[in-house]
Amino acid sequence: MRKLYVAMVGLPGRGKSTMARRIRDGLLSEGISARIFNNGDVRRQLLGAESTEPDFYNPDNSFGREARELICRRNLENAQDWLREGGEVAILDATNASRTRRKFIENTLRDHPVLFVECVNEDPLLLNACIRRKADLPEYAQYSKEDALASFMKRISYYETIYDHLGEEKYWMCVDSTANRVLDEKPCESSPYYAAIREIVVSMWVKNLYLARHGQTEFNIQGRIGGDPPLTSKGRAQAQALARHMQSVPIDWVFTSTRMRSHETAAPLLESHPHAHVMALREFDEIWAGDCENMLYSEIREKMPEVTAGRNANKYSYMYPNGESYAILQERVRRGLRRALFLAGDSPLIIVGHQAINRVLLSLFLRQRTEDVPYIHIPQNQYFHIEMTPSRKLFERIPYESGPTRPLDTALKDPQIYS
Ligand code: F6P
Fold this sequence. Notes:
single chain, 419 residues, alpha/beta, seven-stranded mixed sheet, six-stranded mixed sheet, 14 helices, 41% helix, 18% strand, elongated, binds 6-O-phosphono-beta-D-fructofuranose
């Protein structure tokens, strides 16, 4: 039986731990025994709070340097023992930032090949959000939010001074962890697991994505498009019903558009899931109808017949004057989905979107023909549940009952708006 070490590489906030878990879970689902060995866990066990201070990561601090080498050695020994006892793929989750550290790993682990997997994330929005989340970790419990952030930023800046990209190592893969793309690689042909790991890395991983449309608005009743209308009382009842229906469903992230109807639909959900993170992404704003924004479909038919004719001829590609087409929308929706999935990691998330947005989101999973995408039925009293990993595909449409209206007594937590 051939075995493999996978050593993660990357600065904090680059998605290494999520990727390490996916590699482990993907391999396990194929019957390959895989386990994660995390340097941070060993560090916290051995040193506790002392190792949270940024100076611990200063390359000029000999105590910190030696302690981190010791932690690394301990973790390598644990991984080696486990492979000796019958494990097949040991995943070393740590920054492994410098070439020297990686040489040390290659020289120490001579019994089986070492594949380095570097995670890259150059999206400033995601980096910022990831770093903010780190400040919520238990090891920063004694810090104020600002101090925790400053401390973590300092830690990153120390890592940056010693960081080298992969290139000289024997086997490696560099991955854009926000887009499931291999950017460059030096394959490890000698390992029977290389192809399986590569497949896991490039696959879309969606664990419990819920997709809802905002509740009814006055514009919906009138047949008016775009704009920023609030929910009607029926729409608010739908939002309440959605929250009631999802009360016992775990949700860690709630993504909305920047529009009022999306916020108002999410508000009761946030009451029932008070620990969920909330984020408004412009990528999920409804298709921009340009000169036709706020107009009735009937008005457009009368005053701008060329728009109706253009849409009837090819609704997917037709671009509203000074506005968007579904084809254009797809790009930003794809970016929004990538961002949402990266931030949620493998935690359950819901996107409270709009008619066209949800059509495009669904089409990214359903492989619809493009000409059918603008006609996908997106009801306001049902939501979709999607799971997609290399070993499991699930797609269900779930109706939720509408109940009696209850006033929205808690305002939506102010979502940060990102562009
Ligand atoms: O009618 C509601 C709405 O969300 C509009 O704001 C938007 O322009 C429209 O749906 C998108 O659907 P269609 O492309 O079918 O007009």
